[in-house]
Write a structure and sequence with these properties.
By secondary structure, the protein is α+β, with helices and mostly antiparallel strands. Helix content is 23%, strand content 38%. 21% of the residues are buried.
């Protein structure tokens, strides 16, 4: 096996002896508790909580002047107003991730893009969340009305603004901007830009 082959996450599943819902309702997220054992050791059982989540898309939208479209949004759980990128749940059955990203960019930022590049696919907290983030780069931006889509709750107070990419990168590296998907998108884009791949 080459070193390159070792640098790969692989699907796996350990024996689950029982499961119970800790919380499940009409919302998109549920919490489940499983009784699990190591393969070949059914006598050694332990419990693990899992937050079931359909996944999300994140969009790094960069214009012709190398500015990034940013949001400022309140997050109750974390007690912060974060600088973020347009993002949203993958809650439409069967919708390809890039189409979800296109929809979220329109709904949250009133933008369309002609160029879409998949940057990353990440598990934000693999020890407890099933969520996967599909992170996209969007270029060739133009205005597109959100139509009759209405922003609710935290999104109704969301602000949009533009910042030069290099200033955003500095803010990430200085720890001024810490929201995970944004940090990942910015660093991935910088690496690819430096390597001449975007």
């Amino acid at each position: 096996m080459s070193t390159h082959d070792e640098l790969r996450d692989v699907p796996a599943s350990w024996p689950v002896h029982s499961s119970r819902d800790v919380h499940r309702d009409a919302w998109v997220v549920a919490v489940r508790e499983d009784e699990v054992s190591r393969p070949g050791h059914p006598e050694e059982r332990f419990h693990r909580l899992s937050v079931e989540h359909p996944g999300a898309v994140v969009v790094l939208a960069i214009d012709e002047d190398d500015r990034v479209l940013l949001l400022r949004q309140y997050r109750h759980t974390s007690g912060h107003r974060f600088v973020e990128l347009p993002a949203g749940l993958r809650d439409a059955d069967g919708e390809p991730p890039v189409e979800t990203a296109q929809r979220e960019l329109r709904e949250e930022a009133e933008l369309a893009a002609t160029e879409w590049t998949h940057l990353l696919s990440t598990f934000p907290s693999a020890g407890i969340l099933s969520e996967v983030h599909e992170i996209f780069l969007a270029r060739g931006l133009s205005h597109l009305s959100r139509g009759d889509f209405e922003l609710h709750a935290e999104e109704a107070e969301m602000e949009t603004f533009w910042a030069p990419f290099d200033e955003l990168l500095d803010a990430v590296l200085e720890g001024q901007v810490r929201e995970g998907p944004l940090v990942q998108a910015v660093l991935a884009y910088e690496v690819l830009r430096t390597r001449g791949k975007v």
